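Listing S7. Sequence submitted for prediction.
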Amino acid sequence: MRSKEESVEELRRSMEGITAEAAPGASAAEDIAAKIQQLIVENDLEAGARLPSERDLAQTLQTSRPTVSQAIRILVTKGLVESRRGSGAYVTRRPEAGLAASVDLMLELNQDSVPQLADLRLWLETMGITRAIECCTDEEIEACEAALATLRDAAGDTAAWMSADTAFHATVARASHNPYLASLFESVHATLINYEYRAWIQEGTTPRWLRSTEVSAMAALHDPILAALRSRDEEAGRVAVLHHHYVMAQHLAQAHQL
């Protein structure tokens, strides 16, 4: 079995054959994102595969590190890559990717439907946490705790936050033991959060509520969800996800104005 170092080196060598021609009208970051995506698809990289470092990618693709960083953020919004703060970028290739792409297309065709999509997210999460409270295991609660810890650590890094936020809420939904509900929820949530943050992703900036100084506020928004799961309190769970819904709606409204 190949070591992680050997796998990364093989990925790096594979990228050397990728052409540097940009698609008409594509930005430099979009072009690099397309090349990295080509690498992932052509090499059939499995979920969990670690991409080469941003420095190595920049050197191999003969571009700047900021451009590679922007390209990684673009792939995060597509759900193809997960950004882990302090660790790097990893392939996701979840089965939900196709469904998420369909939901994303619907939103692109009708951006006035954001409130309706947000309502669907709330309904799915409400059902998910209610069912999770009924049947989740201690191991699943521990998984939610670990996901929440990762979410806290992602403060100040927009791409890492997007990955960690989706991972936390999806972990709670999967504890419902209904894979269809979990898949639908993750697709809808990922589409909404990608829409919410794409302006900041494109600019390479961090919105006010994701700054490191706002960790306590972010914890107050997510801690009650986990607390309800721990205490098996369905009413507290419904209230916690409803509060999260209202705050997310405010962020979505602000993103829609940019």
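Caption to Listing S7: primary sequence and predicted structure tokens for the chain studied. DSSP finds eleven helices and two strands in the chain. The chain has two domains: 4-91, 97-257.
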